[in-house]
Amino acid sequence: MREHLIAAPLPTIRRIPRYLNVLEDFAAEQISFVSATDIANKLGLKPIQVRKDMAFTGIVGKPKVGYKTDELIETIKSFLGWDSATDAFLIGAGALGTALLGYRGFAERGLQIVAAFDIDPKKIGTRIHGKEVFPISKMAELAKRMQVHIGVLTVPAESASQCAHALMDAGITGIWNFSPAELDVPESMTVQREDLSAGLAVLSVRMSEKKQGIV
């Protein structure tokens, strides 16, 4: 088993899935070997950055040859934990939750949303994209029985804290937070927040800057 002596920086972790997308394109083109330069050119990065990021996965390229494409793909999937299926619960079967339940790309990256939870009586007992919606009161029982440790949170801000604590009480140790709220949870919990408004802000500001000739 590969040991990581140094924790990978967050920017590195965010870049590595982009490398995987490029590598899968190379594999589809039946390109057997790729270099850091090949990957960097596709993404507008510097080769030294790609090599530094790859070092955190534990793989080492061969001088003048580069990396074997299929081996690098498998190494990255292993590093990201995407080489085996991980089950998750989704909390909040509203518009965003429904969209995520129907997104097939998660399965390709090793995440299987196996059930949804909500407080709306009209949704409980229904199925959304093949996933049954349960009352939140059933979460702890099902998490223990199904050995689920990841929760995808897609509830309004005013409900986020209560739902996060329900996840903790159910034994969930990792929360993928799509709600607009900052969660106050113990350090033992791993939380990744996806702030959609932040992404929109970057897009809007960059467009404005280009319009003004700033960039």
From TrEMBL:
Residue ranges: DNA binding: 18-57
GO cellular component, one term: cytoplasm
Keyword tags: Cytoplasm, DNA-binding, NAD, Repressor, Transcription, Transcription regulation
UniProt key word rRNA-binding: no
UniProt xrefs under Pfam families: CoA_binding, Put_DNA-bind_N
InterPro entries: CoA-bd, NAD(P)-bd_dom_sf, Rex_DNA-bd_C_dom, Tscrpt_rep_Rex, WH-like_DNA-bd_sf, WH_DNA-bd_sf
Subunit architecture: Homodimer.
Protein name: Redox-sensing transcriptional repressor Rex
Annotated organism of origin: Sediminispirochaeta smaragdinae (strain DSM 11293 / JCM 15392 / SEBR 4228) (Spirochaeta smaragdinae)
